[in-house]
Amino acid sequence: MYRVASASQYLVITGAGIKDLKIAKKAWLLPGQSYTIIDLSPVNYTFEVQAMSAEKLPFVLPAVFTIGPRADDMEAIEKYARLLAGCDKNSKNVEELVQGIIEGETRVLVASMTMEDVFKGTKEFKKEVFDKVQIELNQFGLFIYNANVKQLVDVPGHEYFSYLGQKIQMEAANQAKVDVADAKMKGAVGSKLREGQTLQNAAKIDAETKIIATRREGEGKMEEVKVKTEVKVYENQRDAEVAKANAELATKKAGWTKEAQVAEVEAQKAVAMKEAQLQKQVETMNALTRTEKLKAEYLSKATVEAETKAQEANWKLYQEQKAADAILYQRGREAEATKTAAEAQFFAKQKAADGDFYAKKKEAEGLVELGKAQGVYISTLMDSLGGNYGAMRDFLMINGGMFQQLATINAGAVRGLQPKISIWTNGGEAVSGRDSNAAMKEAAGVYKMLPPLFKTVHEQTGMLPPNWMGTLPADD
């Protein structure tokens, strides 16, 4: 759709393809877009603001404000469209907004002024209110086109303006009486004064008239001479301009004559040059004709020779190509034979690998089955032993011959070490508490234990006991 706004309106478009909003006089509306029409015509808002002066005297301030969007500022129009486009400018919302701003600023301003200041400075007071309210309306894109503050009115119960009016009326009446008396006095005195001034002024005017008449006559003659002089100067200027125009015309005629003669000479020379060019082209064509004729003669001979040599070269090429084809065919057969042998060898290796894989697979399957059988065996054994893990372990070790293997391994280890084992005893006789020789027997047992002890220490460490403890018997 194509939409056009009137002279005092704008289109506010939002939607697809528009980042925020678009303001225009006319535009195409695409699918997914919507528009609103805003009117910039100002509206009159009439308020009666109740305020209080610095003396705490309440009064009513009637005011009329003509407010509308600022038409010459696109930024202000965008603010108005963003904040107030959804509200009709005649609606209560806009009126309450404007009234709230005006009442607030007016009350703040009046609270700092006395009643006398408000009366005396009506113009300044109006300007202050206008400026303060305009600052607040800027954030909404509104502009005060006109502001009119009417006569202040008393609040019911407070007759300050009435009493002030009566006072002013009485002062005016008394002043009027005084003014009447002063007027009568001034009238009598003024009458006599006017008569004397009339006679004086009449004589003065007669003298000034004669002077002015003489002056006007001289000025008339001066103006006549001045006009004649200006006429003569104008005639001389016109003659000079005519002479200048004649000179320019003669110069132009000479130039045109010169250009005509030059053009005629150039035309003659151009004709001669054209004839020379045509003659040159004719001679060039003749030369080309002779050249082509010679080319045809020599070219026919060269063509025959070239075709003969080409035939010979083709025959040689055919023979060489056949020989190469034979060699290529032989090598191709050899390659096919090699390929067949390689495929046979690959097939044999593949079958062998398949056989190994199958054997490994069956072996693995057997191990799996064996593991499953062992698991069933162990589970059955555990159930038979009542879940006693120690008993099951001992049974498996005995049944597997682990103890026999351990004994065999230990015996082999000891056999390789070749140990020397010494066994001694102290006699082993029983000791009785009633035996009187028990102490001597204990000493004799200790004495018999020393030789084998010394021998064992000597064999294992190579150390000999001191001589005072005894010596070892000599080896056989």
What percent strand? 5-15%
Largest sheet: 4 strands, antiparallel
The averaged pLDDT comes out at 78
Structural class: alpha+beta
Q: Show unreliable segments.
A: none
Order of helices and strands: EEEEEEEHHHHEEHHHH
- End-to-end Cα distance, whole Å, is 137 Å
Give the number of helices: 8
Q: Write down how many β-strands occur, each being a DSSP E stretch of 2 or more residues.
A: 9
Rg calc: 72 Å
Q: What does the overall shape look like?
A: flat
Any key phrases for this structure?
476 residues; alpha+beta; 3-stranded antiparallel β-sheet; 9 strands; 69% helix
Characterise the protein shown here.
- This protein is α+β, with helices and mostly antiparallel strands and 476 residues long.
- 69% of the residues lie in helices and 12% in strands.
- It has eight helices and nine strands.
- The strands form three sheets. Strands 6, 7, 8 and 9 form a four-stranded antiparallel beta sheet that branches. The chain has a three-stranded antiparallel beta sheet with strand order 3-2-5, covered by helices on one side.
- A hairpin with a 6-residue loop joins strand 2 (9-15) and strand 3 (22-24).
- The chain is flat.
- The chain starts with a strand and ends in a 15-residue tail after the last helix.
